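pasting for the record
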Amino acid sequence: MKASSYTLLADEVLTLDSRGMTYSPGAVVIEGDSISYVGPPQAEKSGTVIHLDGCALLPGLVDVHTHTPMWLFRGLTEDVPRGEWLQARMRPLETLVGPSELRAGALAGCLELLTSGVTTIADRYSEMGEVAGAVEESGLRAVLAHSLYDSDAERGLREAEALLGRFGADPARSRVWAGVGPHATDSCGPDLLRRVAALAERSGARIFIHLAQAEAEVAAVRARGYAGCAAYLDELGLLAPTVVVAHGTYLTDGEADLVGRRGTAVAHCPSSNAKLEARVAPVGRMRRSGAVVGLGTDAACCNNGMDLFAEMRTAGLLNKVAADDPAAFPAADLLRMATTEAAAALGIAHLVGSLETGKRADVIAVDRRAPHVQPWHDPVANLVYAARGSDVSAVFVDGTPLVLDRRPVRLDAERILADATQAAHALAPLAVGP
């Protein structure tokens, strides 16, 4: 089905605009790739009319940190002692897969995200030139970054420049665009990060980097003579609104305040942090200090799922415990961390994140009729704490229907899963046990 004109009719529309407008019942009219109307149903319908009975419409979810190719490794790195997950478990597995396997895993990851209501992703990994084809095929909106390391800096920078040449860095011009992705503060020294900053400035690209995600990372940065990971980035000019830092799990209070004061964008991945490090990142402190915080799923092998509804719930529960305050992180804030605030973190709030006339038509329908979301007293609370990705019945990106009646429209799910599981099953006998 080609992007043209659609009228979506539903029991409820949650716009998540600045006024928090809700319409019950409601309609969203799509013309081409954009929204032309949001409000009560009109007598005159435009284009193809799609009745989404029993559903609530809301903006597509925005996943600010994921690694789609790592779908292949789900279930192979379980219950690992703190500090061993990346080097002792993941790195040996990563040497066993090539570009074709990573592409297959990425397409399966995109399928999982899409059918769970995610319409935009920030995706980064190795071999992103190959992975990019899978993301394009999926129909998702995406910013892609090739992971850069000191150990392979020259080749990595060539890959990053190739992605920028292929897609550009302007999300308004292309559904898929490029960022620059230094891996982390321990694996990227000052020289590489200065080159990253220069490349980002020349191209206008956003920078994506892991920050203080492990104790070993913090120790390595301090061994270089810096007070901490945030101070290291700050000295290099890499704490800024155009930089997205992931995790921040081991930031001190002072570093969290610094990240916030610089207006840095933060990718909070609560399930991954809890599973791999048994910690909660100080995102409440970062937000209070001025950081823009969006939610990320991280990889399927970090938390075994790519369901951003689950991440909203987990973020709420863990951060309430961390704050020792059941009133902390209200449901409305959590929903915005997966939509409007997440879009702001990626610099695309002018395009997506809310349902408003003139914005891109990234719309999802969530079925309100399942027992686990009844009764529907509080739509926001139900979406955050009760809904699941499996409740998503329709997904539109750029005005194109990609999921209808819970089934992918463009993607051959059976083929994608067959190819990806074949690649994944070859890894299982080689996985390092606990």
